[in-house]
Specification:
disordered N terminus
Length: 151
């Protein structure tokens, strides 16, 4: 590439750059210049360079956006995984507690079984109501609905 100095109509000097083009490329540029109505091949080349630079800037901007989105997804995946692990631990604890309680509770005698079940049902409903007080959102409604449907 050759660089020379050129003066524009406003009096400021702009560097002149020379390009070596193959005959085929030169012919194609001249055809595009005539077909699309450019003042000169240079006008077409300048516009093509500007368009390429704008596309490059746009691609870089999109790449930065994609990187931010990927980082957000990674953060969300970590949070969901953490919630999942916590939930699994809670289920395991509940399972162990249920097994422990069920093996330690003595069955009532046959003649007291009906009243023991009635008292147990009342204790269960009270447990669900107390649990519903500490939960907010949709889960609270589910617990209260399960108590209502048991009645």
């Amino acid at each position: 590439m050759v660089t020379h100095s050129c003066h524009s109509g406003e009096g400021s000097a702009m560097p002149l750059r020379g390009l070596r083009l193959s005959d085929d490329l030169k012919t194609r540029l001249e055809q595009v210049q005539k077909r699309r109505g450019y003042r000169s091949v240079n006008a077409f080349i300048l516009e093509a360079i500007e368009e390429k630079l704008q596309r490059t800037d746009a691609v870089e901007s999109v790449s930065e956006s994609e990187a931010r989105i990927a980082a957000d997804f990674s953060r969300i995946v970590r949070e969901v995984r953490s919630v999942h692990n916590t939930q699994q631990a809670q289920y395991a604890l509940l399972d162990a507690l249920t097994k422990y309680v069920s093996t330690c509770v003595v069955e009532p005698p046959q003649d007291l079984l009906v009243s023991a079940r009635a008292r147990g049902k009342l204790r269960y409903e009270k447990l669900l109501r107390e649990a519903a007080k500490t939960i907010t959102g949709e889960c609270e409604n589910l617990l209260l609905e399960s108590v209502a449907s048991a009645d």
